[in-house]
């Protein structure tokens, strides 16, 4: 292989690594001494990673999908939630052809209409407002109220761990107000929204939806209250059938609208429900439903899509590929889609000169049991690629601060952060030895806030805090960058380092002064 055309440039995304001045319940502040050393030595700043600055509604926390898309785009990308909210506000939602086809088909064929998704105000994967809009649409179409069946997935990861009872109560009230819809099953997202090929989890969800395998309770609220009493919080709620089981299972050919707009955590369950050649586990239910999805879950899925994806061209990876530079995308399983699919603007294609390195995440129930995750393997892969000296640009993700932060376990989060901190020491030393540059930033906050200041309970969700960015390399010592920016400013900054022209589509501006 040819040698590098220039010294290596690394973009290292520390997932869930936010900035917060208060050291209380702050694993970043307490457990990352080398990162603090870098901030003292090299130019650094803070980036907005939530709300309108990343294309989300104001006051909505960022997430990994949104963060990586903005990092790669070099412009603020209006996110799916923003586009769907706008369609509801201007009335276009009620005229959406894909959704109408599903509902009118169910009415015409005298079938149940199934609605499935995360019932949460976390606004990371789905939105409460969108469920209500679907109920209003079903009412307008004239579907009988008892034929609209809701399969509710509970959150507790992007929301407080015992908040689902509030969200489901609001949903029940919306059903009563509209005279349409009822909750027929409840299950925690841990089972139904796996993205790491833990098919035994997805099987529990599939058996609930198609066979009715699970606990039985008279109401969703009772199911949650009993779950809490047993020490089981929202994310881990066991499969539960709500009310009479007769006629509530998802049957062959029935219409199913999946209202999660974020794709990565509903790909597996939608594949299990739809793929005729599915092999991951033996399905006990009947045939496949006719699925409609809010957004494109995967390019090879044949489902009608209610809200087509943004067509994003001239992403950072596109620009460097056209320039003949080679790029490596390196992450463990939990964040692999983020450094590939999302960083590329929702495109699956491998670009010319692109190499993808996937390290498997550890097979544990929750990551507080293995807070180091696969950071060692990720680091070894980076060091091996650097030693080969064949790649100019690296896009890297360390998942620890986010995935362990979601457990709300402060001690485990400190171990997670410390593990990444040690990896940064090794990486920056290797890059500096080659005369390269390591740009370290994050996609959103998490492990800097591990206790809810109001309730005193563990804080498991993302935060609204800014994220740090630091340019680590000899050429940047003694320099300064803009102290404040947005995630979209990162791609123009990297292009400036590479001495490549910023395309017109990139409307953000470099942080380098």
Query: Oligomer, anyone?
Result: single chain
**CATH architecture heading of the largest domain:** 3-Layer(aba) Sandwich
Rg value: 23 Å
The SS-based structural class is: alpha/beta
Shape, per Cα inertia axes: globular
How is the CATH topology of the largest domain named? Alkaline Phosphatase, subunit A
Biggest sheet details = 8 strands, mixed
Supply the number of helical segments. 17
> Would you identify the CATH H-level superfamily of the largest domain?
Alkaline Phosphatase, subunit A
Number of domains: 2
Describe what you observe in this structure:
There is one protein chain. With 513 residues, the chain is of the alpha/beta class. It has 17 helices and 15 strands. It has two domains: 9-78 and 311-498, 3-Layer(aba) Sandwich (Alkaline Phosphatase, subunit A); 81-293, BPG-independent phosphoglycerate mutase, domain B (2,3-Bisphosphoglycerate-independent phosphoglycerate mutase, substrate-binding domain). Helix content is 35%, strand content 15%. It has an eight-stranded mixed β-sheet, with helices on both faces. Helix 10 (220-229) links the parallel strand 6 (215-217) and strand 7. Helix 6 packs parallel to helix 7.
